[in-house]
Design goal:
The chain is mainly α and 258 residues long. It has ten helices and two strands. It comes from Faecalibacterium tardum.
C-alpha cells in the first residue's frame, strides 16, 4: 500500500510571527516619526504610521499572557518608558522636559497594569466581581491616560483593553467584527483628527486619518501565535529601537537645521 504524504499545516498557510509583527510595527512607527521630524511634507508617512500603535497594543497583551515573569515584564516596560521620555520630549516638544505629552510606553504600561488587576480578580472572584472591577479599571485607565497625557491619551489605554477583552476567543468572525467596531469607536469617535474628503461612486465622504488604524487588524489577523525568531539581544533591540531612533532623528534634524 502506498504511503500517504501529509504536508504540515504550517506549509499550507501564510501567517505572521510575533517577531514579524514587531518589525512591521517598528517600521510603521519610524515612518510616522520621519514625518514628525524630517519629512513633514510627506503626509502619507503619518497615514501609514496610524497602523503601528494597535499592533503594539496587541503585542503588549500577548506579552502579558506569554511572559514567564510578569514582574520583569512590567519593570522592563517601566525602564524603557523612563529611558524614552527625554528622546520623546526632544522630538515632540523640542526640549528636554515636555510635561504635556508622555511617550507611548507609558500608555502600554497603564494598560498592562489594568489587565493584571482585572485578571487577578478574574481568577479569584465570581463573575459579577470581575465585571464590576473591569468596568472600574476601564474607566480609571481612560481617565489616567487622559490626565497623564500619555501618547494616544485614554483612547490608547482603551485600545490595550480592547485586545485584552477579545483575547483567547480564537479566530472567530464575531471577534474580528467586535474588534473592528471597538477600534472604530476609539480611533474615530474618541481620537478623531484630520479628515480627508474623498469621492466614491459619485458620493462625497470624509475619511478620518486616525481611522486608518483599523488596518492594523489585517496583520494582527494573520498572526496565529507563532513566536518566530527570538533571542535576548533581539528582544532588547526591539525595546531600544524606540528611544534610540527618536534620539537619532532629533540629532539629524538639528544637524540639518543648522
Amino acid at each position: 500500500m502506498p504511503t500517504k504524504v501529509i504536508k504540515p499545516a504550517a506549509a499550507t498557510r501564510f501567517d505572521l510571527s510575533a517577531a514579524a509583527l514587531h518589525i512591521l510595527a517598528m517600521a510603521l512607527m519610524l515612518m510616522d516619526h520621519l514625518w514628525a521630524t524630517l519629512l513633514p511634507a510627506q503626509e502619507w508617512l503619518t497615514c501609514a504610521g496610524r497602523v503601528a500603535f494597535p499592533i503594539f497594543a496587541f503585542m503588549a497583551v500577548e506579552g502579558y499572557f506569554h511572559t514567564h515573569d510578569l514582574k520583569k515584564y512590567t519593570l522592563r516596560l517601566l525602564l524603557f518608558a523612563l529611558l524614552s521620555e527625554v528622546p520623546f520630549d526632544l522630538m515632540y516638544g523640542g526640549t528636554w522636559f515636555y510635561p504635556v505629552h508622555q511617550n507611548v510606553i507609558w500608555t502600554l504600561l497603564l494598560g498592562i497594569l489594568g489587565i493584571h488587576l482585572m485578571e487577578t480578580v478574574h481568577k479569584k472572584q465570581k463573575t459579577w466581581a470581575y465585571l464590576l472591577v473591569s468596568a472600574l479599571v476601564v474607566v480609571a485607565g481612560a481617565v489616567l491616560g487622559t490626565l497623564g497625557m500619555v501618547d494616544y491619551y485614554g483612547a490608547g489605554v482603551l485600545t490595550v483593553f480592547i485586545f485584552y477583552f477579545f483575547h483567547g476567543h480564537g479566530r472567530k468572525w464575531w471577534c474580528l467584527l467586535g474588534q473592528l467596531a471597538a477600534l472604530y469607536w476609539v480611533n474615530v469617535e474618541l481620537l478623531g483628527g484630520l479628515m480627508y474628503p474623498i469621492q466614491l461612486f459619485g458620493m462625497d465622504f470624509e475619511l478620518c486619518q486616525q481611522g486608518l488604524a483599523l488596518l492594523a487588524l489585517v496583520p494582527i489577523w494573520l498572526y496565529r501565535g507563532r513566536q518566530g525568531y527570538h533571542s535576548k539581544p533581539f528582544q532588547y533591540a526591539c525595546y531600544a529601537f524606540y528611544p534610540v531612533h527618536m534620539l537619532l532623528l532629533v540629532l539629524v534634524l538639528n544637524f540639518v537645521n543648522r
